[in-house]
Amino acid sequence: MSLCGVLLVVLALQQQPPSADLVVLNARVYTSDVNRPVAEAFAVRGGRIAFVGSARGALALVGPRTERLDLAGRTVIPGMVDAHAHLLNLGLALRTVDLVGTRSYDEVIARVVARAKTARPGEWIRGRGWDQNDWADTRFPVHQALSRAVPNNPVYLTRVDGHAALVNAKALELAQVAAATADPTGGRFIRDSAGNLTGVLIDAAQGVVGRVIPPASRAELREQTLAAIAEANRWGLTGIHDAGVDAEGIAVYEDLAREGKYDLRNYVMVRSNDSTLDAFMRRGRQIGLYDGRIWIRAIKLSADGALGSRGAALLEPYSDDAGNTGLITTSPERVKSVAVRALKAGFQVNVHAIGDRANRMVLDQFEAAFHEVPVADHRFRIEHAQILRYQDIPRFAELDVIPSMQGSHQTSDMYWVPNRLGWARAQGAYAWRSLLNTGVVIPNGSDFPVEAVNPLISFHSFITRQDADNFPPGGWFPEQRTTRQEALWSMTLWPAYASFMENESGTLTAGKYADFVVLDRDIMTVAPEEILKASVVMTALGGRVVYRANPK
To answer: Number of C-alpha atoms within 13 angstroms, CB side, residue 189?
Structure first.
């Protein structure tokens, strides 16, 4: 060959893109990218998508070391992201008494008694997940039966929503809480008609007892974190927005990420106590640390309690508890001051608000902060935004505030929401369609461990407004349903936007992280009642498999 020919060959080789590490073939790929919504193949190089489209195009990137993955027609979607979750709480829940699904107070006690048989003398017994709304007697429990059954170990049982707890007499004794103890600001000790403590603690009252529980060791936090990440991967999650983490928790996350053991992309919302805020404000925004595992640029506040424990702040009293309008847990002045500080430092603020009074207060304080510190692209969020008055719905779009909502909350709560709110107010509950019609996006989530980790539950809720048994027929306020495409975006593209990560993730697009999930059925086309039967076959983070189902 002539020198000219050799040069032409060398030039041609130089112009060819390097080989892919992985090509995925024979799949039904829903990309969440409007420019290429559906594909049959894609290629991965260096942890990122190199190509999405036809099998022909993907095969052009095959080299001698390229792995081929033939999915035999299975469905692929972008890695799902839970836009409101609590990773450390999930890790703790995986290691405590599981009270989810208990059908009576007696069943709760029986599970605690079983745990007490293996507990050390004086060891705290913790559990989570009880919900009196699921019992025949829907009143809050009283501690006496629990205290008789477990008299020597202090017991602390968190309600499913995390905004109430039940403790026994031993726990009250150790915390030095008695009938004469005053309710803390933003909290309440539930008392009986004679003024005696029932053992139920609402919101800030939980901290009065919780402060005497020995904190988890660093080693325990590591174990809990790893267990929670593995559980998230098992359900197809490649990312979460972690709602309210303290400095110690973040330090554990960073340790594991440095060691290459953090198989999740975590958009961390910093807990809003002053010492933690001061430390992270000084440090500044942290973007995509440890190969995109940790992102720290958001602050979490809580404006009220939860609807199930009647702590959500309402404009008018609860329909089933006259005189009670819920609890404001963070003052309006505090919300505004943190918002102003965050705007100046380039941080996002995400505020838990469930009741209509809390949502209006947060919107008001955000608006005042935006007037004081104008910022074009703040992407402030309200977490949950469950109960809204009609006139407040357009304000999200007007103020560029993102409603971060959880589909599974609607289908868990719908059975008793009308009792709490009455029929008229219930129509402003979980108002997804009304909000979407104003032009905002809704990142979806589960609030785990409040709800089950499985993100397909919220996907199913968004499009059906029905539970797993297809109840109620036609859906609960079905006019608020979303389309399937919107439901998919709510778990992929919209969480990416809500975390300033839309250029890195959220769609299967060339240049973005190769985070994807393989499902055993097509959730975009199967009958709605088949969606919750879908199983995760594989979860990949940066093109590397972090979960693979055992062959059946």
So the answer is: 21
